[in-house]
Amino acid sequence: MLPYRKNIKNALDFGCGPEPVMANLLSKKGIPTKVYDKCFYPKDTLETYSLVTAVEVIEHLACPLSAFKKISGKIRKNGYLALSTLFHPDCLSEFDNWWYRRDSTHISFYSPVTLSVLAKKFGLKIIYNNNKNRCVMQKL
Fold first, then answer.
1. DSSP 8-state class, residue 37
2. Predicted confidence pLDDT, tens digits, the chain (140 residues)
3. Which residues pair with 41 in a beta bridge?
């Protein structure tokens, strides 16, 4: 997120878990960061952010569409969503043997194509994708 740093005034670490590592890192960089996690930090506000992070979160979502709707509603116009999850293999036989799907808490899987569809549906555009595990979207 360093190329966009000057535009980031505040952030939300969405799905931070019991230890909000990303929130701590962003705060140390001078970006005021709040946390939200359904289990550990369930207090939600109507506040919006110039950056929302979801680090190793979206693969745990039982209802990805409702979660993406909530997440996109937290992003200000021209703000960013930075997420990470391991993108699934395209080949079915590789998917069957893929170690990442064997984690019983991983219930939703994504690819760059999936993220493009989600971005379009929720008024975002992909501005970075490493085709492995990271994606940055900007709210239109």
1. B
2. 556 667 899 999 999 999 999 999 999 999 999 999 999 999 988 899 999 999 999 999 999 999 999 999 999 999 999 999 999 988 888 888 899 988 999 999 999 999 999 999 999 999 999 999 999 999 99
3. 37
- The Cα–Cα gap between 45 and 17 comes to 18
List of domains in the chain:
2-139 (3.40.50.150)
pTM of the model: 0.92
The dihedral over CA atoms of 115, 109, 58, 85, expressed in degrees to the nearest 10, equals -80
Burial state string for 108-137 with b = 16 or more CB within 10 A and e = fewer than 16: ebbeeeebbebbeebebebeebeeeeebbb
